[in-house]
Amino acid sequence: MKKLLPILLFLLISHVSFAQKYAVKGRVLDNTSVALPSATVLVLQAKDSSLVNFGATDVQGAFEIKGVSKGDYLFKVSFLGFDPYFQKIVFPEGATVLDMGTVKLQPQSNQLKEVLVQGEKSPVVIKKDTIEFNAGSFKTQPNAAVEELLKKLPGVEVDAEGNVSMQGERVNRVTVDGKEFFGRDPKMATKNLPADAIDKVQVFDKKSDQATFSGIDDGQREKTINLQLKEEKRNSAFGNVMAGVGTDERYQARASINRFKKGQQLSFLGMANNVNSQGFGFDEYTNFNGGMSRMGGGMIIISNSNGTAGNGVPLNMGGRMNGLMNTQAGGLNFNNQLNKKTEANGSYFFNNLNQNIIKDVERDNLLNAGNPRTTERTTQDGGNLNHRGTFSLDYKLDSLNSVKVTGSLSYNEISQNLNSLINNFGTNGQILNASNTRSNSDGDIFGLNSSILFRHRFAKAGRFMSVNADVSANQNDTDGAYNSDVTFANGQSRQIRQHNEQESDTRNLNIGVSHTEPLGNRQYLESNYTYRANLSESNREVYDLEGSNSILNADLSNMYESLYLYHRLGVNYKLNRLKYNLTLGTSLQQSDLNGEVWLRNTDKKQDINRDFYNILPTARFNYDFANNRRLNFNYETMVQEPSIRQLQPVADISNPLNIYIGNENLIPSYMHQLRLNYNSFDAGTLRSFFGMVSVMHTTNAIVSAQSIDENSIRTTRPVNVDYNTMVSAFANYTYPIKKLNSRLHFGANLRDQNTISVLNDVENDVNVRSATGNIRYSYQKDDLNFSVRADLTAQRTKYEDSNQNDQFFLNKTYAADANYHFLKHYNINATFDYLVYDNNATNFNQAIPLLNVSVSRQFLKNNAGELKLTATNLLDRDTGINQTANALYIERETLNSLGQYYMLSFTYNINKHLNPMGNSQGGSIRIFR
């Protein structure tokens, strides 16, 4: 594999370098000689009208389509309301540019409109800022999902994890007929809807909801794909069910059913399996966890550890899922256009997860000379049952006023049993201490979120006002017991037998008011006010178990209450122009952090009262160049308050060798973030580039300070340090090779972080640098698709005062996948991954080959059924490995995995058309996967 990739790339680059390319240019006018901007210009194969290249005219009506190979073509120009223009073209000998001169379009007649509606559709149409692909012009295999259709579209990239990019930029939202499909996770639509249900794929940069309503462009954009259904699918019920059984008692079942009728969308997704298939992505993760936390200043952060949220919901960000998981999950989603003014949507999810994880950890402690190595073996069995419902109502009172109400309700039941064996070793390999801990816990989590947004657009153009209020509440009750036996090198030992009960409640209120006043000449002044109150209460009681008696441990028990308030008053100046917009603003935020700690060992209360004043400047600039090129600059500041756990000055000894104590003297962190990104898309060559640079500088940053005593017991406490700075850069470039039906994709990600680590009260400046590079070659043809890729991640950790602890490690992945459709009804698919983990400093080197193969056959009327045989981990070499590093240690995890298994599955689909009277018609059966 290592030798194959360079050879393949050399051959491809050589072909690209020596293949002669041509360009077609000209100008498009109407019948009165007025330029027609954004007219669609196509170069089609003369023999079958298949798409070769496309582009759009600029504001002067000019166009130039590059990257066309020598041959016979059909030239086509179209513009809404005008007759299309056709002409056969042949490139003259010795010329590399064909000048079409001036092309004049004639107004379209009614008779011709009817003919065009019934005739063959253009593969691509450009409508101002929207690129619209005709799905029927791009052939997909029978039963293909929307994801396979997107892979065929020019300029669209779909990576191995199913993430979609267009024009080099990540697509964060996919809608169906303009409506959300199971929230905002694009994969819910791309992986579950059938490709042959789609009429058009529309790609555009969506403005923010507030900009759309107010008519004032705030420069915020979100790359969006809208899937426009075929007319017959808008009154139909369709979906698929799948069931499979395998060796080692493996099983998998899945159902996807959709009912669309008269502006109503009702969808159901369900699954049950024990093959680590989770079925939910990032959006469902945030939904299950009650959403994300928001910092003062507007930034959103997410807390996650070990791929699992605090309530046990799995988060699969695209990597391999390790451990053994048994999952039952399902969801119901509806969208209903009640009338012209009112739209309602909602969803219900449930998730029942049972998980078994066996984890072996080797940790190199970089700054602790006396304890350079730690090993840990953990066995964890846990269960999580989660229910969550969401609702949204968008009501347009009239042309000037709208109200939007959203709400969510969630409930979790959690249980966990954990056994942990930890050994700390000295410089000569001797055991400094060892612990054997057994614990179990059960808990309930209840969450409630609701919000209301009122928007008013005044009669005077540009005058706008909005008022929003958000209320949320979270209640968490847990009970646990743990037994721990600790031995030390000096022969001493310690036993802990304890039971704990903890109740925590969090309530949040957020109110915001914004008013925008026009200043003339497309200039605006926005004033805003935000009030936020965050009340947190916690009661932790720890009991020592002595025989049948339970004795309150006052040193480890406490009650805590904190109230974080802030008032923020701000003003923003906005300037809108045809090609650019600018926002400059600042806010004054006054924060109060009030807390009360009841220490049981002294039976006294300790008050915490602090006030903070911060100025929060912001700036945003966006510039739209010609020919699909855009530059965005964004600068913002924010304040992050400490969490309730970080502020509690009471020890948590659930891990007796790693004790955690909060710090009531913490102060909020102040963050500066700057982002600059640039993207370009050449509609003629279909080349795309996206680049981003981000800088985040934090003062009074909160880090975890550690101290280690003579028995090598580690105590962690959060403290404020002077700074934490991170600089990151990201870029990707896509290069189509049309003559080979191929694409080359290059990507790079760089990060440089400077922070301060604290060990035994000594601060040490730490620099962590990482670089990730990837290259992918993909081939797309009617019956054969394949791709090869290579990913490389390198990380270096450097200590200013301790160079001997500097570390460097590599993670490498080589992968290939192929799909071949043959003999009309057969399909074979194979994926191969070769994972390599290197760390020369610790002499760690391991390579893992993974091979999965499946063969399927479609049968029954209209290919109603599909039988598939899948071999997973065919080489039987799967082992879960994670190699990570931070400022204090490098850690390698080895986890249990599914191992090798074979599965035979059957998929069946129901597809019925619903007539306007509500009766089912047809009954043809087809598979959608």
From TrEMBL:
Ranges of residues in domain Outer membrane protein beta-barrel: 456-908
Gene Ontology CC entries for this record: cell outer membrane
InterPro entries, per database record: Beta-barrel_TonB_sf, CarboxyPept-like_regulatory, OMP_b-brl_3
Highest rank taxon of the organism: Bacteria
UniProt KW Nucleus keyword: no
Keywords from the UniProt entry: Cell outer membrane, Membrane, Signal
Segment forming the signal sequence: 1-19
Keyword Membrane: yes
Location in the cell: Cell outer membrane
Name assigned to this protein: Outer membrane beta-barrel protein
